[in-house]
């Protein structure tokens, strides 16, 4: 802008000198008029330069304002296992924590998805920064190179294999039969712990793969209750409801294989977020911990909030929360990943726990 001003001024002065050099008594009026025009042009040039400078300063200020704002796109799924995530969303904990720690604002966009596979697609495509999913699909995503790692554990939940058929008392009664077992989908956490329970009992981990029919938890419970399927492998709160029904009984091998203390739901964050925006990453971790602390230290208060989006009565919600295990520490993560590698649930075997998690994560 300075060069433009200098150039404009030089042109104006040049015209002034030219007019003066050509002057005689017959041209004095013309020269005077030319000088007045030059002065007006000079003033206009100065005003134009000032306006352009002001516009540049405004643009710079707007750019600085935009740069100070952050955004976070998060996907999560359904059920009581995601109660800490629901609390973060409903209480605006990420926004609050980020502003307290940095003095800046963040816009958080929440999307509810039906599977970990959908979340993997979103993170790999760049439309998501963060996802919450079962530990099995998370291990799959890390080892496939989706572009994320686990940043925290979220919860452990009860799982169980329920049946409406009195003739089914053990895996022996299922293997080689046409009895259908409803669970979320092939490769889901429920499928993996079914395989783990089979291995623990001395069977081929994939011996019941052909019996699996994919159903969402509530659909599987309805199909079990109506008799459309023989078995349902599910988590809380559905397992609690099914255990309360007199015409259903449980095959204990699954609940014995992976209990409430084991990791079930974890949070994953893109490597881009972790590496390029450590302040926002830390605010995410701190907000999740605050939500988990609330569930553990003030479950009655938490239940009043989470029952609204879980669809349970406040009393049932509180009971289910107390049966759950909410913690930021992983449990059995590397053990499960090693099992998945041995049994072809994943193609790449992780060498160590640290291959799966960011350096702030604790557990095993």
Comma- or semicolon-separated keywords:
D-Maltodextrin-Binding Protein, domain 2; 3 domains; alpha/beta; 15 helices; 364 residues; five-stranded mixed beta sheet
Write the layout of secondary structure elements.
Blueprint: H1 2-21, H2 28-67, E1 70-76, H3 83-91, H4 93-102, E2 106-112, H5 116-125, E3 130-134, H6 135-144, E4 148-156, E5 159-163, E6 181-183, H7 189-200, E7 212-214, H8 217-226, E8 231-235, H9 238-243, E9 249-251, H10 253-257, E10 265-270, H11 271-276, H12 278-297, H13 299-310, H14 314-322, E11 325-326, H15 333-342
Parallel strand pairs: 1-2, 1-3, 6-7, 6-8
Antiparallel strand pairs: 3-10, 4-10, 4-11, 5-8, 5-9
Helix pairs in contact: 1-2, 3-12, 3-13, 4-12, 6-15, 12-13, 13-14
Could you characterize what this model shows?
By secondary structure, this protein is an alpha/beta fold. Helix content is 52%, strand content 15%. It has helices spanning 2-21, 28-67, 83-91, 93-102, 116-125, 135-144, 189-200, 217-226, 238-243, 253-257, 271-276, 278-297, 299-310, 314-322, 333-342; strands at 70-76, 106-112, 130-134, 148-156, 159-163, 181-183, 212-214, 231-235, 249-251, 265-270, 325-326. The protein has 15 helices and eleven strands. The protein folds into three domains: 2-66; 71-155 and 263-355, Periplasmic binding protein-like II (D-Maltodextrin-Binding Protein, domain 2); 159-257, Periplasmic binding protein-like II (D-Maltodextrin-Binding Protein, domain 2, 3-Layer(aba) Sandwich).
């Amino acid at each position: 802008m300075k060069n433009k001003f200098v150039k404009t001024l030089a042109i104006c002065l040049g015209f002034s000198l030219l007019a003066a050099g050509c002057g005689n008594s017959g041209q004095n009026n013309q020269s005077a008029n030319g000088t007045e025009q030059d002065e007006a042009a000079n003033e206009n040039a100065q005003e134009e330069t000032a306006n352009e400078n002001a516009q540049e300063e405004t643009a710079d200020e707007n750019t600085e304002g935009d740069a100070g704002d952050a955004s976070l796109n998060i996907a999560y799924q359904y059920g009581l296992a995601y109660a800490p995530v629901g609390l973060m969303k409903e209480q605006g904990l990420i926004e609050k924590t980020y502003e307290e720690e940095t003095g800046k604002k963040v816009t958080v966009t929440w999307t509810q998805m039906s599977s970990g596979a959908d979340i993997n697609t979103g993170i790999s495509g760049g439309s998501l920064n963060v996802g919450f999913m079962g530990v099995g699909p998370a291990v799959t995503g890390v080892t496939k190179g989706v572009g994320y790692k686990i940043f925290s554990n979220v919860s452990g939940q009860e799982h169980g294999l329920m049946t409406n058929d009195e003739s089914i008392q053990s895996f022996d009664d299922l293997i080689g039969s046409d009895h259908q077992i409803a669970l979320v989908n092939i490769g889901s956490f429920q499928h993996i712990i079914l395989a783990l329970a089979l291995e623990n009992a001395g069977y081929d981990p994939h011996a019941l793969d052909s019996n699996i029919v994919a159903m969402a938890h509530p659909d599987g419970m309805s199909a079990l209750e109506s008799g459309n399927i023989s078995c349902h492998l599910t988590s809380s709160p559905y397992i609690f409801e099914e255990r309360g029904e007199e015409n259903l009984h449980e095959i204990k091998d699954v609940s014995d294989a992976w209990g409430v203390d084991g990791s079930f739901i974890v949070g994953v964050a893109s490597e881009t977020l972790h590496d390029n925006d450590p302040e926002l990453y830390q605010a995410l971790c701190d907000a999740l911990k605050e939500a988990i602390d609330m569930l553990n230290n003030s479950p009655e208060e938490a239940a009043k909030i989470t029952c609204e989006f879980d669809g349970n009565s406040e009393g049932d919600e509180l009971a289910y929360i107390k049966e759950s295990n909410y913690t930021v520490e992983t449990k059995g993560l590397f053990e499960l990943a090693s099992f998945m590698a041995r049994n072809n649930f994943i193609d790449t075997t992780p060498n160590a726990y640290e291959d799966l998690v960011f350096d702030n994560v604790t557990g095993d």
